[in-house]
Structure formats: structure tokens, C-alpha cells
Amino acid sequence: MKKIIFSLFLAIGSISAAQALEGDAAAGKTKAATCAACHGATGISAIPNYPNLAGQNSAYIIKQLTDFKAGTRSDPLMSPMAANLSEQDMADVAAYFSGIPRSGEVVAATGDAPAGAAPVAGNVEIVASTPASAIYKGDVSAGKTKAATCAACHGADGNSLVPMYPSLAGQSANYIAKQLHDFKSGDRNDPVMAGMVAALSEEDMHDLAAFFAVQAPKAGTGEGSDLGKKLYFSGDAAKGITACIACHGVNGKGMQQAGFPAIAGQSKDYLKKQLATFRDGSRANDNNGIMRNIAIKLSDADIEEVTQYMSSLK
Ligand code: HEC
Ligand code: HEC
Ligand code: HEC
């Protein structure tokens, strides 16, 4: 069996024998914290659309992750997850998941979180925050000049002082550029921003995105909420709500390259408005309905608590 898989790899040419990396299951467990939001803390998923990974063959897991990253297998949820993994990360998470029994029982019995439960928190982010300037081709100093018109609302350094205006400092450049695009095309609707972007060229958008992405964000000052924290970290399996941590990160810093926005440092008012508009569909610029599908399952109370928590993220 090993031989067959091995020769398949050679045929595909994605991994050569010389490069095959030893996976470290313990390192993999730490790195799998973000995966747990969808695939369960013990690799047994609580949500029917998400596959179980516990007990899966390690070589198969590595091949799938390699394919998601290369784009030969594509999925709106998994592709950005895999994009952030190095070959070593893949080997490590594969070693971790393949070593868990299919039932997930042994892990539960050792006192870890039960199958499908919250990822064990911990300060883990798979994404090594790549400096935005390295990801994006925008020109930071040109962006600074162009940002003069934005300062009145978003702050000179991208830290807004007015709750209804979002902060842009430290935001994913890819996300900022996409939003500017969407405001201009009308895919995202806001009368104020529509006026601001009307005259912007593609190059302006990239420069502005680069400038704001490298500004230092201010920490959130909200009060926090235990209920909101639970929803943020664990989602709600009964209601089919994916944990926010999967895409917005443990500390709310988002995923730069995937264009999953940072939500730390935003005001509660702004966050509430965005969730309400994703829920009623008046904000519909999220690819594949990635946020609308989540927001539609949130109650008013869920939105209240989760935004209270998000506004406290540092
Ligand atoms: C936001 C939800 C989500 C997160 C987070 C997530 N995945 Fe996935 N994963 C999915 C979905 C959905 C699929 C099924 C894709 C499809 O239908 O092709 C999948 C499929 C996979 C597969 C292929 C399984 C198979 O049987 O073919 C692997 C391997 C995998 N994920 C590993 C990971 C790893 C490792 C992480 C963490 C770095 C992760 N996933 C994070 C949603 C997620
Ligand atoms: C008069 C106030 C005002 C000015 C000036 C302004 N904006 Fe905005 N901006 C807003 C408001 C209000 C929103 C939130 C819209 C909403 O609620 O959906 C916003 C949203 C955004 C967003 C989306 C942020 C997110 O987290 O999704 C970006 C990006 C943005 N503005 C960039 C800019 C840039 C770049 C400029 C300068 C060229 C600019 N804005 C000028 C008021 C302003
Ligand atoms: C599978 C990935 C994913 C998950 C899980 C997820 N989000 Fe998002 N979220 C996104 C993406 C992508 C966007 C940006 C969409 C766009 O405009 O392009 C977004 C945008 C947002 C925004 C607007 C940010 C801004 O600056 O305007 C808020 C607020 C938000 N999400 C809250 C949540 C909450 C609360 C949860 C958990 C209940 C959650 N998200 C779970 C992917 C995700």
C-alpha cells in the first residue's frame, strides 16, 4: 500500500522522496487549532459537510492539502486554509490527525476536549503574519499621500475614532483592496464610500491598501463577553455555526493572504452593523456567501454577545 501511494506521489510530482518530511504529531496538534473549528478538536467533525480527519491516512491528508494549496482541488473553505500551510505544517497536521483513532474516543478519555468541541484555545495561529507589504504590490508611500482624503473618517493612521467608521490599520491588504473594488462596482453598498472610491484607479486602491495594512492597529477597548467568547471560539454545532476563530483567528487578526479580515480593534457598533447586513443580505459581497451563510444562523442575542467579545480583542 505504501508503495502505491509513494509511486502516485512520484507520478504527480508534487512530493519527491527526498523531500518527504517527517511529521511531528505534537507540533501538528498545536497547528491544528484552527482546523478544529471545522474538523473537530479530535478530527471528528460536528458539521455534516465537513469531513472527519481522525484516523485518515497521513499520505492522503498531505496529498489533499498539497492539492488544495496548488489549486488542483478547490474548495472555498479549504483552499485558503491550505494556502497558509508549509510542507512541514502539512506533515505535522497529517501526523496528528492520522494518529487519532476514528472514534476520537481515546483522545476524549485522556481529558482533552470531546469530539467536535471547541478547539483547545491557546495562542496558535497557523498563518505566520506575512508583512502586508510583502503580499501586496501597492506602494506604501504613494498610499500615504492618497490617504489624506480618508483621514477624516478612518483616522490619519487608519485608527478610527468614530464608532461607525471602521479602522483600517493593520487590516489585510487583500481585504482592503477587495472592499474598495466592491464599493466601486456596487457589490458592497454604502453611499459614503461609493463617493470616496468613484475616482480611484486600480493602482490607487492597491497603494491605499498597502498603506493602511502596514499601520499599527490599536487594541480593542470593549468589555468582552463570556457567551460571545464561546461562540467565537467554538461556534454552535447545534445551529451549524462555524467558529469565527477558523477564519478571523485566535486574536481577531484575520488571515492576511486569504483576505479574511481582521476584526480586532473594530467598534462594536460597526461589527454589529456588518453582521446584521450579512444576515439580511444587504451586504452580499462575500465570496460564496461565506459570511452570509454564518450570519443567517445568528440570533440578535448571538450578534450582541459575539460583537461585545470581538470589540475586546487586543
Ligand atoms: C472553515 C472550515 C474549515 C477549516 C477551518 C478547515 N477545513 Fe479542511 N475541509 C473543510 C471542508 C468544507 C472540506 C471538504 C471540501 C470538499 O468538499 O472538497 C475540507 C476538507 C479537508 C481535507 C480533505 C479530506 C478528504 O477526506 O478529502 C483535509 C485533509 C482537510 N480539510 C484538512 C484541514 C486542515 C489540516 C485544516 C487546518 C489547517 C483544515 N482542514 C481547516 C473545511 C475546513
Ligand atoms: C466621510 C467618511 C469616510 C471617508 C472620507 C472615507 N470613508 Fe471609508 N468608510 C466609511 C464608512 C461609513 C464605512 C463603513 C460602511 C459600512 O458600514 O458598510 C467605510 C468603510 C471602508 C472600508 C471597509 C472596511 C471594512 O472593514 O470592511 C474601507 C476599506 C474604506 N472605507 C476605505 C476608505 C478609503 C481608502 C478612503 C479614502 C480614499 C475612505 N475609506 C474614505 C466612511 C468614510
Ligand atoms: C469560513 C470563514 C469565516 C468564518 C468561519 C467566519 N467569517 Fe466572518 N468573514 C469572512 C470573510 C471572508 C469576510 C469578508 C467578506 C468580504 O467582504 O469579502 C468576513 C467578514 C466578517 C465581518 C465584517 C468585517 C469588516 O471589516 O467589515 C464580520 C463582523 C465577521 N466576518 C464576523 C464573523 C463572526 C462573528 C463569525 C463567527 C460567528 C465569523 N465572522 C465567521 C470569513 C469567515
UniProtKB/TrEMBL annotation:
Q: Which UniProt keywords apply?
A: Electron transport, Heme, Iron, Metal-binding, Signal, Transport
- Is Translocase among this UniProt entry's keywords? no
Tell me which positions the record assigns to the signal sequence: 1-20
InterPro entries listed in its UniProt record: Cyt_c-like_dom, Cytochrome_c_Oxidase_Subunit
> What top-level branch of life does the organism fall under?
Bacteria
The UniProt record lists the Cytochrome c domain at 23-101, 138-216, 223-314
- TM region positions: none
Q: Does the keyword Heme apply?
A: yes
* Alphabetized PANTHER family for the sequence: CBB3-TYPE CYTOCHROME C OXIDASE SUBUNIT FIXP, CYTOCHROME C4
What protein name does the entry list?
Cytochrome c domain-containing protein
What organism, scientifically named, is this protein from?
Colwellia asteriadis
Q: What is the lineage of its organism?
A: Bacteria, Pseudomonadati, Pseudomonadota, Gammaproteobacteria, Alteromonadales
